[in-house]
UniProtKB/TrEMBL annotation:
It comes from the Bacteria. It is found in: Cell inner membrane. It is a multi-pass membrane protein. The complex comprises the extracytoplasmic solute receptor protein and the two transmembrane proteins. It holds the Pfam family DctQ. Belongs to the TRAP transporter small permease family. Part of the tripartite ATP-independent periplasmic (TRAP) transport system. This is TRAP transporter small permease protein. GO terms for molecular function: transmembrane transporter activity. Keywords: Cell inner membrane, Cell membrane, Membrane, Transmembrane, Transmembrane helix, Transport.
Length: 206
């Protein structure tokens, strides 16, 4: 089990690094969008390549960050009933979901997506829009993204099995690798608590 947990930690590290890179893809898409708008308004010039590269970057950010999102448990969940169940029942629901739903879905997408990627690359397919880009780079995001999501699903599966066997921490607990937003929120919360606990200063003597 310890060997599997090491693999799980390696997958977590990989997707954590991917998440740090993806934010730059979003920044690049935003920058290109702004520059495209300025050039169109000022110089009355536009290019389909500028528009398509924005779509490519968004596709890469959305798909490749899926594993990172799962690592931080930020995918949409319906917890109306699940949150009322005992912790072990919640873990079992996750195990069933990762093993019998997430894994087959990712494998199916990879099974169908890789041949399509190879076909796009071999044919050199180009966007039908004037000045459009070649298509295979954006199709590459599909197997990469679902491959990372599959690995993260297996990592989460390992962590939950280890928890049930008493060999791992609570997988539903708080993540130690918090986002910058979470760190800021935590710091503000502590500051507010400290200010509330501080005694009120004595009124100045007249």
């Amino acid at each position: 089990m310890q060997a599997l947990l090491k693999i799980s930690r390696a997958i977590d590290w990989l997707n954590a690094q991917v998440g740090k890179v993806v934010i730059w893809l979003i920044f690049a898409a935003t920058l290109i969008s702004a520059l495209n708008a300025v050039v169109r308004k000022v110089f009355n010039y536009s290019s389909n390549a500028y528009l398509e590269v924005q779509w490519y970057l968004f596709a890469w950010a959305f798909l490749v960050a899926a594993g990172y999102t799962l690592l931080h448990r930020e995918h949409v969940r319906i917890d109306v009933l699940n949150s009322r169940l005992p912790k072990k029942a919640q873990v079992w629901i996750d195990i069933i979901g990762f093993a019998f739903f997430l894994t087959p879905l990712c494998l199916l997408v990879l099974w169908l997506g890789v041949p399509m990627l190879i076909d796009k690359y071999a044919s050199g397919e180009v966007s039908p829009n004037t000045g459009g880009l070649i298509r295979w780079p954006v199709w590459l995001a599909l197997p990469v993204g679902f491959g990372l999501l599959l690995l993260q699903g297996w990592s989460e599966l390992i962590k939950r099995i280890a928890f049930l066997r008493g060999q791992g921490p609570d997988p539903m607990g708080r993540l130690t690798d918090q986002s910058a937003e979470a760190d800021l929120a935590e710091a503000l919360r502590k500051q507010a608590e400290a200010e509330a606990a501080a005694p009120n200063p004595a009124p100045a003597a007249r």
